[in-house]
Amino acid sequence: MDAEALAHRPLKRPTPPSRIPDLVRKILLIPSVIVFVGAMPFLITLSPLLLYGIYVLIAGCAIVIFALQWSSVRGLRSVTPYWGWILFYCLWGTLVAECDVPLGEAVKVVIKNGLIIGGLVLALANRRQLTVLADWVQIAVFINIGISLWEVWHPELVKTLALAVDSSATAFNIMRPAGLWNNPDEAAYAYVIALLISFWARAPLSWGGRIGCIAGIILSTSRTGVYVLALCGVIYIGSRWRPWFLRAKSFAVIFLGERFGEHIFYPAPDNHDNGEGGGNGQAKLEGGRQERG
Hints:
This protein folds into 2 domains: 18-125, no CATH class; 127-293, no CATH class. 68% of the residues lie in helices and 0% in strands. The protein is built from 13 helices and no strands.
């Protein structure tokens, strides 16, 4: 084919990439933000269909992504250790632990956790989507720190929010504001996670979120939260000093240490008090293991 023929040959327009997977990933970020902000347990108070509709939405979006971009399934390998831990945790509670967990409840926990974490992994396909998630996580911090400050002046709001989710709830303390998370220890862990994610958020949300996270941890008065925050600081300083210091293993130590630290540093159940005085310690311990949707 000569040069003249090539010059008059019509050029083929490149096929535009499918925008459907990108749109579906944006939708998948919504359940993740709802879970993080602490609103998930409140959905069932509005309607059970609304709560389970979230899980159906995640499953539907995952099916669409797999159908259009099957290669995305490789990303799920990164959370295989977490799924293994959840499976072991539920099997232990069902087969070994003294307080037997019904098999049906254990299966529900595995499925729900698998859907939420799997949906989050599928949603975070690139740095841009991670930035969007980080921004929304900081907004969630602002919402919860605002509620926590309100609870400082109106302590009865702590009890009102906790009982709105579970009428038999005991894992709260009116002297330890926790926002929508209700449980001050869970609130501290959430603030630590938000603080870590803030490094991918855009300014001024990132700096505002960090200030809110520190304030939230202080208000929650969670000792384990402070220990985990200090450990994160050590790892961060170490990563600046020695780049090889910061690896996936370091973050694994943080979250495993947080779980073991909960049992090491907290007082015995009989000494637990929700700020109203008295109460059965064992009942309070069991109340702290509420299912969060």
